[in-house]
Amino acid sequence: MRSTLTIEDDTDQRLRKLAESEHCSYKEAVNLVLARGLAALSVAESPPRYSMKAFDAGFQPGIDLGRLNELADGDRADGDRADGDLADGDLADGDRADGKRDEA
Predict the structure, then answer these.
(1) Using CB atoms within 10 A as the burial measure, which of 23, 34, 70, 85 is most buried?
(2) Is the model's pLDDT at 11 over the cut of 50?
């Protein structure tokens, strides 16, 4: 197929050097560069495959594995029990970890 193209001067010089180094005609150099460029575009269009390395994060001490569903539910994730009682290690409002009570 015949086409008329306007090629920039610097691109023309690079094509002529390529034709010389590849021992081919100018027309063949243009077709070679176009084919390589289009092939690179089709490879670039497909997204890269996602991969992730997994690691064992484990659980922090004190996490009750039997109550993970409550964390997932989000309604009792603050440590409150469904029956209103506090679980062992839970602090009531105003209590501090050092055993003293905050004064309001």
Answers:
(1) 70
(2) yes
Q: Please state, in angstroms and rounded to a whole number, the distance separating the CA atoms of residues 73 and 76.
A: 7
Q: What is the pLDDT of residue 52?
A: 86
Query: Which tens digit of pLDDT belongs to each residue from 30-66?
Result: 999 999 998 887 766 667 788 888 877 777 778 777 8
Q: Give the domain range for residue 30.
A: 9-43
Residue 93 in this model has a pLDDT that exceeds 60? no
For residue 82, tell me if it sits in a domain.
no
What's this model's pTM, rounded to 2 decimal places? 0.41
CA distance readout (Å), 81 to 48, 77, 86, 103: 46, 9, 6, 24
* Total count of domains within the chain: 1
Q: Is residue 13 part of a domain?
A: yes
